[in-house]
Design brief:
There is one protein chain. By secondary structure, this protein is α+β, with helices and mostly antiparallel strands. The protein has one domain. It has 17 helices and eleven strands. A four-stranded antiparallel sheet has the order 2-6-10-7, sandwiched between helices. It has a three-stranded mixed sheet with strand order 3-5-4, with no helix packed on it. It is globular.
């Protein structure tokens, strides 16, 4: 339900406002902003060398836009999430069994009835993606690449800035969309899980080499840098949420993320260093928290990360290395501030699992939340129950309706994103525009099979420089 108190405007009125604003910008009438275009600070060669170009309206800041009380943050046990069997911890095994049975019955019914987005061909596509996404992962990596020692040569050396540049270049080549780095210290170590989803304990020890036993995964203390990266999801496909067709783009991204992990682990091994990866899906550490600290995006009302370049249409992955890299800072792109007024994802959530509060809170919703930061905490039990009892998929409606989930490269959309950061007074207008243009409306799942989409269903011409 949309709050009737929100003032909606017509497309004509919005374009008039946009035109006036653009004219004011051109005439220099709008207030100056502290957002200095990164492009203006670099020569063409240095832009290439940095390997890190953000939209001009994205600012690096010393503290993230989500408030953190590090004294209250504890290392989180990944078994406390509601993914997989974790749901039974909070709702009970009987309820999980009931929902799994209901989910199977709904799946069969939809296939037999040929419901768009849930046909046999949609499920077949989803199964094909799942086989890769659930593939074998390695904490220590495949360990097949030759090390410098095996080649009889010294290991690679370079400054932390050079190492960051080399990793960004290689990982973009492997398929990562954006890459950031976090240095582990007394506080940020708390963002590494205490236990992985499979129950193995994650510990830091004063050892030279990482190792793994039947009970634990050991990270050397000298491995102080987290590599955080995103992989794009198909916006066009996710607009078909909540269907099994939309769900498969999530699995596709997890499969691609796994491939990036393998290649990066082998690349770093061949340079002479260690790279420790996720031993299973969503393992090793808290993805949204690490992505925020790495400057890849801001925490949002979804209690997930929204990126300036791709909105929420990404999946986040992480690795730990002993290769010293230059860490990144958090960013302020006006996203969390925009979420305070927007509420579109929470209004669209059929499970009422997202917060409609005006302000974020320190108070968590359940044991699946990690305390110590101020956020719009979600009710994951409501979310998962809806997925199994009604959606028949991993849903994704909140991602699809987000005003930042736009991939069109028209000037209007770039103006909107920049306006969120530089002119927050327009936040309400931007939300109204999003409603007026019906951008959050679900698209026809049947139509998807007739589209001529690019590779992986993503806009391969869109880059991080388009802002």
């Amino acid at each position: 339900m949309v709050d009737e108190g929100k003032k909606l405007i017509s497309r004509r009125d919005f374009l008039r406002i946009a035109g006036l604003s653009a004219s004011s910008i051109a005439a220099g009438n709008l207030p100056s902003t502290s957002h200095t275009p990164l492009m203006s600070k670099m020569s063409p060669l240095s832009k290439q060398a940095a390997g890190k170009v953000r939209p001009w309206w994205v600012r690096e800041v010393d503290q993230p836009t989500v408030e953190i009380d590090w004294d209250q943050v504890r290392r989180f046990d990944a078994r406390n999430t509601v993914r997989g069997l974790g749901f039974a911890k909070y709702a009970g095994q009987a309820e999980l069994d009931r929902l799994n049975k209901l989910d199977a019955e709904i799946e069969k019914k939809r296939i037999l009835e040929g419901i768009p987005g849930y046909t046999l061909q949609d499920y077949a596509l989803n199964d094909a993606q799942a086989s890769i996404a659930r593939g074998k992962r390695y904490f220590l990596g495949p360990q097949e690449a030759q090390t410098p020692e095996e080649r009889g040569v010294p290991k690679w050396t370079g400054s932390p800035a050079e190492a960051a540049r080399v990793l960004r270049a290689s990982m973009r080549h492997f398929g990562a969309a954006t890459i950031g780095f976090v240095q582990l210290d007394e506080n940020t170590r708390k963002l590494i899980y205490s236990h992985d989803p499979d129950g193995k304990k994650i510990v830091f020890e004063e050892v030279d080499e990482a190792y793994e036993t039947s009970a634990k995964r050991v990270i050397p203390n000298k491995a102080k840098w987290v590599i955080v990266y995103t992989v794009q999801m198909s916006t066009e496909t996710m607009k078909r949420a909540p269907t099994i067709l939309a769900e498969q783009t999530t699995k596709l991204s997890y499969g691609r993320g796994l491939e990036v992990q393998f290649k990066t682990q082998e690349f770093i091994r061949a340079l002479g260093y260690q790279c420790l990866g996720e031993a299973s899906s969503n393992a090793l550490g808290i993805s949204p928290a690490l992505a925020v600290m790495a400057g890849l995006g801001e925490l949002s009302r979804q209690n997930r990360v929204i990126t300036p370049e791709f909105g929420p249409m990404v999946r986040i992955f992480k690795m730990i290395t002993d290769l010293p890299v230059e860490p990144d800072k958090p960013i302020d792109a006006g996203i969390m501030e925009f979420c305070r007024q927007c509420k579109k994802c929470a209004e669209a959530c059929p499970a009422s699992a997202l917060s409609l509060d005006d302000e974020p809170s320190w108070e968590t919703t359940g044991g699946w939340n990690n305390p110590g930061h101020k956020a719009y905490f979600e009710d994951s039990i409501k979310c998962r129950t809806y997925m199994k009892s009604e959606a028949g998929s991993n849903c994704g409606i909140c991602f699809a309706v987000c005003p930042f989930a736009k991939k069109e490269k028209a000037w209007l959309h770039q103006w909107v994103k920049a306006g969120v950061s530089t002119f927050p007074v327009f936040d309400g207008v931007i939300r109204s525009m999003d409603d007026a243009f019906s951008y959050g409306a679900q698209k026809n799942p049947e139509e998807w099979w007739y589209l001529d989409l690019p590779e992986f269903g993503i806009d391969t011409e869109q880059t991080t420089n388009d802002g």
